[in-house]
């Protein structure tokens, strides 16, 4: 009776190689699409605001809406004499809401800014790069990771990495349309 049970056959080596090649190319495409998107955002930001040609205060002014507030907390962490003192000042913040002391870290979810400030100081980047460039680099890098995650999710749901490429393409097309781009007519964004 034991000999009646069929023994599963091993997949031929060329099938295993094809699977490995598909996974390798898919992973390479996922990482490349995320990196390319981060580089695109960086170039677009530079082109739109002429970021490198501005003074420090003008660079900070280019942050719009909530990004300016979050950058200011990141900058406060860098100005603090120690990390512990910076966290204490943010958890006992009386500057954000008038006549009220709040825990800004918890209420505004400032954990990414805390991590960015730790990374900036721990890696010795303060001798190499300005804080604003480090901060926007992290923001653009996280957007690249987001695009990579979209790619992988689509790939896993469909079973083919080509669907991941299509998802990334549609994401870029839909998210990177700037209303000023078509209104201005001069392709500068102004």
Automatic annotation (TrEMBL):
<keyword id="KW-0472">Membrane</keyword>
<feature type="transmembrane region" description="Helical">
    <location>
        <begin position="132"/>
        <end position="156"/>
    </location>
</feature>
<keyword id="KW-0812">Transmembrane</keyword>
<keyword id="KW-0808">Transferase</keyword>
<dbReference type="GO" id="GO:0016757">
    <property type="term" value="F:glycosyltransferase activity"/>
</dbReference>
<dbReference type="Pfam" id="PF10034">
    <property type="entry name" value="Dpy19"/>
</dbReference>
<feature type="transmembrane region" description="Helical">
    <location>
        <begin position="20"/>
        <end position="40"/>
    </location>
</feature>
<protein>
    <submittedName>
        <fullName>Dpy-19 like 4</fullName>
    </submittedName>
</protein>
<dbReference type="GO" id="GO:0016020">
    <property type="term" value="C:membrane"/>
</dbReference>
<dbReference type="InterPro" id="IPR018732">
    <property type="entry name" value="Dpy-19/Dpy-19-like"/>
</dbReference>
<keyword id="KW-0328">Glycosyltransferase</keyword>
<keyword id="KW-1133">Transmembrane helix</keyword>
<comment type="similarity">
    <text>Belongs to the dpy-19 family.</text>
</comment>
């Amino acid at each position: 009776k034991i000999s009646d049970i069929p023994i599963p056959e091993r997949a031929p080596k060329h099938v295993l190689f094809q699977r490995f090649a598909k996974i390798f190319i898919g992973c390479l495409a996922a990482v490349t699409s995320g990196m390319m998107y981060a580089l695109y955002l960086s170039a677009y930001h530079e082109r739109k605001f002429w970021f490198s040609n501005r003074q420090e205060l003008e660079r900070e002014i280019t942050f719009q809406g909530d990004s300016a507030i979050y950058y200011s907390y990141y900058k406060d962490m860098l100005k603090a004499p120690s990390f512990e003192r910076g966290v204490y000042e943010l958890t006992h913040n009386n500057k954000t809401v008038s006549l009220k002391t709040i825990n800004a870290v918890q209420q505004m979810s400032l954990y990414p800014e805390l991590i960015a400030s730790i990374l900036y100081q721990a890696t010795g980047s303060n001798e190499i790069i300005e804080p604003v460039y480090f901060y926007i680099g992290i923001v653009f890098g996280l957007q690249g990771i987001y695009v990579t995650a979209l790619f992988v999710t689509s790939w896993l749901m469909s079973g083919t990495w080509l669907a991941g490429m299509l998802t990334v393409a549609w994401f870029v097309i839909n998210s990177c349309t700037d209303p000023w781009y078509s209104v201005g007519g001069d392709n500068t964004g102004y």
